[in-house]
């Protein structure tokens, strides 16, 4: 999570929201990492989680399955990213701050543990949540010019 927080802290440098993600292999080695690059790439899907999952799939496994892997992200995943972690078959999602406005790992929806889906990653919430929330608060405060 410390590594993900470091990535998150860099994102405002190119105008993106400070969110960072790391994908760990079954042996806990870092497979891939990314920060939010939505503004940088002009891509609505360039969330840190999606970029990290894509990069991890390129170096691990049979092409796209991330069986045994863990997605670590500083903010609770949105519906797209929660969906992507289910589709990637990660074993575990670990996140920092809750996102009551858009979170899809328990706050607003619970896409990752929906019993109707055939794969449900384990979820660990609240890891270094305050550090993640502080990064986000400072970013939005600066953007509002306060
Ligand atoms: Zn997302």
UniProtKB/TrEMBL annotation:
- Enzymatic class: hydrolase
What Enzyme Commission number(s) does the record list for this chain?
A: 3.5.4.33
| GO MF annotations in UniProt | tRNA-specific adenosine-34 deaminase activity; zinc ion binding
What is the UniProt remark on how the cofactor binds and its stoichiometry? Binds 1 zinc ion per subunit.
**Catalysed reactions, semicolon-separated:** adenosine(34) in tRNA + H2O + H(+) = inosine(34) in tRNA + NH4(+)
Where does the UniProt annotation place the signal sequence? none
Q: Where are its TM segments located?
A: none
Residues bound to Zn(2+) are 47, 78, 81
Q: Which UniProt keywords apply?
A: Hydrolase, Metal-binding, tRNA processing, Zinc
Q: Which GO terms describe its biological process?
A: tRNA wobble adenosine to inosine editing
Q: CDD domains in the record, alphabetically?
A: nucleoside_deaminase (cd01285)
Per its UniProt record, the required cofactor names are: Zn(2+)
Domain CMP/dCMP-type deaminase: from-to ranges: 1-108
Domain of life (superkingdom) = Bacteria
Q: How does it assemble?
A: Homodimer.
- Functional description taken from the UniProt entry: Catalyzes the deamination of adenosine to inosine at the wobble position 34 of tRNA(Arg2).
Recorded hits in PANTHER family, A to Z, give: CYTOSINE DEAMINASE FAMILY MEMBER, TRNA-SPECIFIC ADENOSINE DEAMINASE
Query: What's the name of the protein?
Result: tRNA-specific adenosine deaminase
Identify the coding gene.
tadA
